[in-house]
Specification:
With 156 residues, the protein is mostly helical. It is 63% helix and 0% strand. The radius of gyration is 16 Å and the shape is globular.
């Protein structure tokens, strides 16, 4: 999934699942937690751009199981400082893994297992995937705006 979709999905979960925590600051923190896992692309970005593929080959061990564990540890440590902050971080990080699992081939237990899981909810062709990502991102954007408006965080 693309970066915007990850940020929107994390925010939608916060807005609909814990609206009492949906402050502007928490929405930013939540969105950053939702996209931080994809920083593992940076070392392999050149090859991914040349081949126009950001699949499993452009992933490091930090995107899958180890990244999830680090995200959870950071969230627990943040909870010691502020329980709300810990929950906001955890919701953002976990949303990333959920969205990847639902829309892409992924190796959820990598590096312990190289087994790929693909729920086939998204097309595999580049053109089909682009259309799918675009429609899903726009839909999430509409839901996000509607949710912000409903909580009074944005007046439409």
């Amino acid at each position: 999934m693309n970066t915007i979709a990850h940020a929107l999905f994390a925010n939608i979960l916060l807005l609909l699942g814990a609206p009492e925590m949906a402050t502007p600051t928490n929405l930013i923190i939540n969105a950053l937690a939702g996209v931080a896992v994809d920083l593992d692309h940076i070392p392999k970005l050149g090859k991914a751009l040349r081949t126009l593929r950001f699949g499993q080959s452009s992933r490091t061990r930090w995107h899958e199981l180890l990244g999830l564990l680090v995200s959870m540890i950071v969230s627990v440590l943040a909870t010691l400082y502020s329980p709300e902050l810990g929950r906001v971080l955890l919701m953002g990080a976990v949303s990333h893994y959920f969205l990847d699992l639902a829309t892409r081939p992924t190796r959820p237990l990598y590096p312990l297992s190289d087994a790929t899981v693909f729920l086939e909810m998204a097309p595999m062709s580049l053109r089909g995937l682009f259309a799918y990502d675009t429609v899903l991102t726009v839909t999430m954007g509409v839901i996000w705006l509607w949710s912000l408006n409903g909580l009074g965080l944005l007046q439409l």
